[in-house]
Each structure stands twice: as C-alpha cells, then as structure tokens.
Amino acid sequence: MRTKVAVVQMCSIPDLAKNLSAAERLVREAAADGAKLVMLPECFAFLGPEQEKLALAETLPAGGPVLARCVAWAKELGVELVLGGFWEKGSAPGKVRNACVHVAADGSVKSIYRKIHLFDVDLPDGTQLTESSTVEAGETPVTTDASFGKLGLSVCYDVRFPELYRKLVDQGAIALAIPAAFTATTGKDHWHVLLRARAIESQCYVLAAAQTGKHFGSRASYGHALIVDPWGVVLAECGEGEGFAAAFIDDEVVTRIRQSLPSLKHRRL
Q: Domains plus CATH for the chain?
C-alpha cells in the first residue's frame, strides 16, 4: 500500500493568528497535492518568548480554539494531521508540555506523545535555550495507527536519542515522525545526518517537518523539511522558505528492506 504524505516547512513567529493562517494554507496545498497525512512542525502555532506560550496552552485531548481549528481542517480535507509541537497545559503552574498530536481524518484525536528529551543547551554561537524552564518532560514512547501502518511519534531533540526509536520499532513502527524547530547552528551540521541515521538503523521512513528562517530576536531555524526512506535515501526536501515536501510511504518497501538486511533481528543488546 502506497500512501502519499507531506511534511510542512514554515516560519512561526510570536503571532498565533498569522501562524495558524500560514499552517492552514500549507495544509490545504499539501492536501490538494494528494497527501493523505500532513505533518506540521514543532511550535507551529507559536514560536516566541517562553512565557507567552503558557497562555496559549490547551488541555488535551479536549483542546481549545487551536486544536478545534486543526480538527476542522482534517475533517474538511479528509486528511490525517500530525501536529508536530502542540502547547499542552502542564500539570504544574508555569509549565506546558510539548506534545505531538495525531488527528485522524474524521477529526478525532488518536494519539498524544509528550516530548521526552528537553533542549537545554549553550551553543558556540551564543544561543542559549532552556526548554525545561517552562516545559515538563514526557515519559512514554508512543506509536499511533496511521493510514499506512504504525507511526512512531517524537519531537525535535528526541532525534539525538536512538534508544527512543528502538522502542518505537519494537512497538511496530514502520515510519517515524520527527517534527522540529532545529536551530540554524546545529542544523547545518547535524540535521541530515541524524535523520538519515534514524531511518537506516530503524529501517523506517522518517517524516521531518521543520521550522525555517528567523522567528524573533536571534532565534532562527535551519529548515530543510524532508522525508527519508528506510534505506536512508532522501525522497523529498524543501528548499528555502515556506512550503512542503511530499513522498509516498510504501509498507512493502519496509518489508523488503528488513528481509534483505535483517539488522533489527540481529540485535544483541
């Protein structure tokens, strides 16, 4: 079974209305191109000062105006959505969760993953980010039933922890969702390498929606939303600016590669 999927590339800013308008336009374009599942990047609804996102956070799975709007797109267009980084209310004051939400084509919330690995870094270019100051970490790996088969959910910084993807493969994943807002500094050296590595070692498709460009202050993202096949070949990739990349997921390709090079069966640890 071949299923067309799309990963969105956008430049979110500290303006919820503009971000949602951009996201809707790109989802509609991807659906018109034939995509049956469309993935939005991390922070798609808001990328701005840490404290401001607290006021936008919604309770899941009930949601609020942001989730309601996304659900409406899914139902109208008949597409599955993966909301790459959704601001969910946390369990403690001053905290949110960075959630990856799978919305079915009928508008129902099928699965919710909370980002496990939080991005606390002090980069050589002066970028300092402390995600844990406002985000509480999740604990549980999550796979979901997409139209093409099992999809493993993750978010951005998770990509640096291959043990998570081993868990997702053990749960039956044939594709991995890695929506991101990868920094420009780390992206230029690590983005393609990490995504292709996760695809090759997991023998899964990798779907990576991405933020791109300058957001606010000095915050900038690398972009290059892309789709990788289980052999590590980049099937589709965004260029500069906003847009989407689309390709087909074929479960028979996963089966063929896993049979011809059965590295997953050869694991010893």
A: 2-260 (3.60.110.10)
